[in-house]
Amino acid sequence: MSALLEVEGLIKHFPVKSGVFGRTSAHVRAVDGVDFHVEEGETLAVVGESGCGKSTVGRLVLRLIEPSAGKVRFEGDDLLALDADQMRARRRRLQVIFQDPYASLNPRMTVGAMLGEPLYLHHLVGDEAQRRARVGELLELVGLRPEHARRYPHEFSGGQRQRLAIARALAVEPRLIVADEPVSALDVSIQAQVINLMRQLQQRFGLAYIFISHDLAVVKHIADRIAVMYLGKIVETATTDELFRNPRHPYTRALLSAVPLPDPTAVRERALLEGDIPSAMNPPPGCRFHTRCPFVRDSCRHDVPVLTAHPLPPGPHHSSGAIFVERNEDVRSESRAPSHGDGATHATACPWWPELPPAAPLIATTMPDQDRRRLDRLQAAFVSQTEET
Q1: pTM of the full predicted structure?
Q2: Is there a contact between 90 and 77 (Cβ–Cβ < 8 Å)?
Q3: How far is CA 319 from CA 85, 144, 216, 239, 365, in A?
Q4: How far is CA 267 from the centre of its chain?
Q5: CA separation (Å) from 181 to 41, 50, 296, 304?
Q6: Inter-residue contact 62 to 96 (CB < 8 Å)
Q7: Which of 106, 152, 203, 251 lies 20 to 30 A from 336 at CA?
Q8: pLDDT tens-place string over residues 225-276
Q9: What's residue 343's pLDDT?
Q10: CA distances (Å), 365 to each of 261, 263, 267, 332, in order?
């Protein structure tokens, strides 16, 4: 049985024009050969620094921008072969939640008009009464009230506006939703509410998500698998539990070392990267991470790593571009949905990973018992409050 979404060799090069006549002088290699798949009911998180191409990948999957090359198959159909009318019909099954809900919601339309518009375009309701009833159902589904349909976007808080964006995506009963940093503009407590809402909706309707984020602490609580991107390429993929327990690529390890730990007694050694991300207009030869990698070899500077699959022993599965082993047993994610796994293989694009040193473990420090009990109570109260909302 094929996956719900299959992406092969996805490439997007944006032309850079200059001069009086606007001739193309260079190309920005935003996405440069990406392969992944998403199963039904699964959440694939795409993470990385700003400018790595993760948001571009989401837009390419939806054909909001056209790729330069590659294949995108959804439910077995090649989306890139569809004409405009066929693609519009397909968009009912593919929806998006943007990062800034205030910018993506029309300020001149009421909530009822915005939620009712896709119902009208896709002929999902008969008359006006049915449309109003469906709008009320959608608002209640995301934790709002039916009377909110008469309000405008500026009358809602940031968290409520993001709930409206989720309701709009759900209006046409999709199977896959691309969530482009949907909680990055919200504070921590509201982030937890929105993440819990998305998980509940996923379990209720069997939705699949592509969850794009730069925050691994948020991704940990919603994703089944994680794909780490660097400079237009995926450098590592793994199940969420495995990635947090055994980050293998040096870039992934650096990202994880920057995640704050909710335990003041645990100290993690920071893996600081020197320099900035190279320009996507002129990426370095060989491994694109070699300019910042602390374990660079001479061959890394000119040999392009190829993601190659290898069998894994029974248990959690992992695929990687360059691999380290780290046992972070204090990193837990009990609140996340069960993992779907990624098959009994992992892939690596670094031939030197078996020779790399292990990562430094967490260092536990002492803490008075009384302070520890207070911290545990505070964390339990916060988790209980966010789950109830």
Answers
A1: 0.84
A2: yes
A3: 38, 40, 17, 8, 33
A4: 27
A5: 19, 11, 31, 30
A6: yes
A7: 251
A8: 999 999 999 998 888 888 888 888 888 888 888 887 766 666 667 777 887 8
A9: 44
A10: 13, 10, 7, 18
